[in-house]
Structures are given as structure tokens and as C-alpha cells.
Design goal:
By secondary structure, this protein is of the alpha/beta class. Helix content is 42%, strand content 22%. The chain has ten helices and twelve strands.
């Protein structure tokens, strides 16, 4: 059962036009899966999003996935898809990368090849997945029987490749993220969306440390009087403390996100 007061607060914000409903995907609109390819957005959540795209001025998905993968996974037309933690955007079927990220693609290729080779030499291929996302890469270790041990083995390999190729390393839940040096995040992407669309009321749903930057961008917009905003944390057993500290309010898992989106589509 979704909290009625939260539904009303969301409706109030989305009535402040122009309005935006922004969301992460994995762990927010879809359950966390053992591998990225196994994750999916349930039909009822997609149905709610299809209705909401007509009720807000901007429906956007801000994700660590590549933007084209996000489009394939969510499949809502007339939405904006910001991929690779803000490094690229697909809007009206037009792809726009951040120039610095596009320029670093050869370095990204080389770094991820080196990381994969190091993983193979260490005998970790069966419990590790190197995901090449075009403008960035992810080294997943969720399938490792001992996640802490896997992280300790992987970290030196990734750091060595990142340093050698002039890239940078960030972390998420059981994933090491290889990114270009461009000073871009879900926070800068969210701030840009609010600015570009003149948004006056905005909601962001997210579950991981990379979403904290977006939460902070919403808080800054609210405190500066730019927009009424609400950062909704999607909570579960693995929720980082940083998400709890930065959110305005929380819901319990993807199921409650689905209930909230469904409630927002009803009169």
C-alpha cells in the first residue's frame, strides 16, 4: 500500500508546470538482476509510464546504462533517455554524446580490454562481467560468492587500467564504473534537464550512490527557488547509507515504485 500523503505530494509537484518526472532504471523501475541483460521493466510499470508521458512536460530516464539500451529496456516514446551517467542523451531518436566522452572512446576500448585480460589471468571470468557501454564501462561482480573478496581483487586491476588510459573510476552497488574524465554525473545531467526545459516541479526516483548526485541537484534547485522538487529513494537490503541521507522520502523497492506510478495515473 503506497502512502496517500506521498501520492498527493507528488501530484502537487507535478501540477507545478512545467513539470518533470525523472527516474533511474535498474533497482528503481526494474529489480536488480544477476546480469544487466536479465533485468527488465515489468509491463504494469511500463503501462504507467506510457500514461504519465502525456501528463508531465518531461518524462526522463537518467541511468548508468547506455542510452540505446535504456530505450530498448523501457520503450516509452517521447521520453528523454540520458545514458552512461549523463555522458549521452537520446531525445526524439537523436543521439547526443558529451564531446569529451566521445573523444575518449578509443581509450575506453583499450582499458576495458586490459581489464578483461587481467580478470582472465586471475581466473575471475566466471564471476565477473565486463560490460562495454560505448562511452563508459562497468565491471560487475554481483555473481561472486564473496563480493568483498572479488572487489579487493578487481580494484587494483581496474585502477591500473584507468590510470594508464587517463580515465576515472567510480563505484556503485557491486560494480566498478570506468568513465572518461568529463565532469559529468547524474547530478549535472539532472540540473541540465531542469534548466533546458524550464522545469518548475520535478521528482527523481533512484536507489544507488550514483543517484545521490541527482538528489543533490534537486535539492539545490529547491533551495535556490528554481523548482519544487522531491527526491525519492528506492530502499532495499543493499541501499547505501548515502541514498538514505540524501533522499527526501523513501519507498520500499520496485513494487512500491510501481504502486506510486500507478496511483499517479489515476484521477
Amino acid at each position: 500500500m503506497i502512502d496517500h500523503a506521498l501520492v498527493e505530494r507528488c501530484r502537487e509537484i507535478l501540477r507545478t508546470r512545467p513539470s518533470a518526472l525523472l527516474s533511474d532504471i535498474d533497482g528503481t523501475l526494474s529489480e536488480i538482476a544477476p546480469t544487466p541483460d536479465a533485468a527488465f521493466v515489468a509491463g504494469e510499470i511500463r503501462d504507467s509510464l506510457e500514461r504519465l508521458v502525456d501528463e508531465v512536460d518531461l518524462l526522463g530516464f537518467v541511468t548508468g546504462r547506455a542510452a540505446n539500451a535504456a530505450v530498448a529496456m523501457v520503450g516509452v516514446e517521447r521520453a528523454v533517455y540520458v545514458g552512461n551517467h549523463g555522458l549521452e542523451e537520446i531525445r526524439n531518436e537523436e543521439w547526443t554524446p558529451v564531446p569529451e566522452a566521445e573523444a575518449a572512446m578509443a581509450s575506453m576500448d583499450a582499458a576495458l580490454q586490459e581489464i578483461q585480460a587481467a580478470i582472465d589471468r586471475a581466473g575471475l571470468r566466471e564471476v565477473t562481467l565486463v560490460e562495454h557501454k560505448g562511452l563508459s564501462g562497468s565491471v560487475h561482480y554481483r555473481q561472486a560468492p564473496d563480493a568483498a573478496a572479488a572487489r579487493s581483487h578487481l580494484m587494483p586491476m581496474v585502477i591500473a587500467a584507468v590510470d594508464r588510459h587517463g580515465l576515472r573510476l567510480t563505484e556503485g552497488r557491486m560494480v566498478l564504473e570506468v568513465r572518461p574524465q568529463a565532469k559529468v554525473s547524474k547530478g549535472t545531467a539532472t540540473a541540465r534537464l531542469l534548466r533546458d526545459h524550464g522545469i518548475r516541479g520535478a521528482i527523481f526516483l533512484g536507489d544507488d550512490v550514483t543517484d545521490v548526485d541527482a538528489f543533490r541537484a534537486l535539492r539545490e534547485a529547491r533551495e535556490s527557488g528554481i523548482a519544487e522538487t522531491l527526491a525519492i529513494g528506492v530502499l532495499g537490503e543493499e541501499t547505501p547509507q548515502g541514498v538514505v541521507d540524501a533522499m527526501d522520502v523513501g519507498v520500499r523497492g520496485v513494487a512500491e515504485v510501481g504502486a506510486l506510478l500507478a496511483a499517479l495515473t489515476r484521477p
